[in-house]
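tool_call predict_complex ligand=zinc ion
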Amino acid sequence: MPKVVYPLDSSKKFTDQQYVGHNRWHPDIPANVTVRPGDTFRVDCREWFDGAIHNDDSADDIRDAPLSTVHVLSGPFAIEGAQPGDLLIVDILDVGPIPQEDSGPLAGQGWGYTGIFAKQNGGGFLTDQFPDAYKVIWDFAGQTATSRHVPGVSFTGIVHPGLMGTAPSADLLGRWNRREQALIDTDPDRVPPLALPPLPQDAILGTLQGGEFDRVAGEAARTAPPRENGGNQDIKNLTKGSRIFYPVFVDGAKLSLGDLHFSQGDGEITFCGAIEMGGFIDLHVDLIKGGMETYGVSENAIFMPGNVDPRYERWLAFSGTSVTLDDEQRYLDSHLSYQRACLHAIDYLTKFGYSPEQAYMILGAAPIEGRLSGVVDIPNSCSTVYIPTGIFDFDVAPSASGPARVDPGMGVPRSTF
Ligand code: ZN
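tool_result ok
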C-alpha cells in the first residue's frame, strides 16, 4: 500500500483531522502536504457533506442539506518544482470506499447515497418535475451496488473522484468571480440560483486564520462547478487507470480532490449526486515542464480514461429533442434534449412498477451513458441516454407480453418543506 500522506479518521469531523482540508478554491490556501514528481501516495477523502447524510429511510437530511459546507476536499498537495505553465500529470492507481474495519459515522462506508435536492435547497437537472427531497441508500458488496430502496437493480460501480483540480491563480479566480456574478445578476432571486458566489459562512480554508482567513473567505470560489482547473467535473470515466493532465496556475500546483463516487450515470443528473461516499485514492504525480504551451492546454484538464469500465453489452436507449414539455420549440438546446431523453426513460421505467423518484435515482447512480447524438439538425438537437439492460434482474425490453412488474418496495417518503 502506498504511503498515506493525507489520513482521515472516520470517527472525526473534517475540521478535527490531523490535516484540515478546504471547501473553497483560492490560491492562498496553504498546502497541507508536499510531494515530489514521481511520488506514489494515498489520500483519504471524506464524503462531500462530511457525514451529514445518514444511512436511514428518511430524506429530511437531504432536504436540509448544508450546501454551504461542500465540498470537503483533501489537500492542497504541493508538487515540488511545479510552476505556472506546467502540466501536472495525475495517475489514478486505485480508488475505493473506506476500508470496512474503520469505525465512526461513515463506518466502513460499505454504503453510499444518492439524493434529489429539494428545489428550494439545491435543485437539480429535473427539478421542475422533482421539486421535493428524496434519498436512496446503496450497499456495496465488492464492486456491486444494490439498494433496499430500489428493488430489482444491481450494477457494477465505476469508482471515481467527482472532483479533482489545481488551485486557480489570483487572476483566474477574479475572472471566475466576475463572470459568475454577472450571470447571477441577470436573475438574482432565482430559485435554485443561477450560480453560487463566494460565501464566508462555513468556509474551511486549511490552516488559515484571523484576517487572512476573512480576506480569503470573502474571495474564494465555491466548489460546485467545474472550471479551468478541473474541479467538480463529475466525469464517471475518471476511474482507476486514468491519467489526467491538469494545467498549473500557481507555484506547487496545489492539487486537491474529493467527492468520491462509487458509481455515477453520465450527467450526474440527480445533483446529490452519484453514489456519494468517503474513501481512499492512490495517486502518482509527475510534471511536464512548460506543458501548457507545448500541448496547447491553456485551460481545462485533458485526460486518458481508465480501462476498467464494467462490461455491459446490451443497452436500452431513449432519445429526446429540444422541445419543452409544453411543446415549445427551442433551438438546438442539448441540455433540454438530454432532459427529455431522461424523462422519457423515467416514464418507461415507471411502467415496471418503479416510482418516478426511483427511476430518476437509477439514472443518476447506475453507469448509464449519455450522448449528444445530433447537434446540427435545426431546430432540434437530439440527445440520447443508454441504460445497460443487465442491471435489472428482469427483462426490461419492450415485448408483446407487457412489462414485468417489480415490487417497488419501501422507497423513501419525499421530504417537503
Ligand atoms: Zn458527488
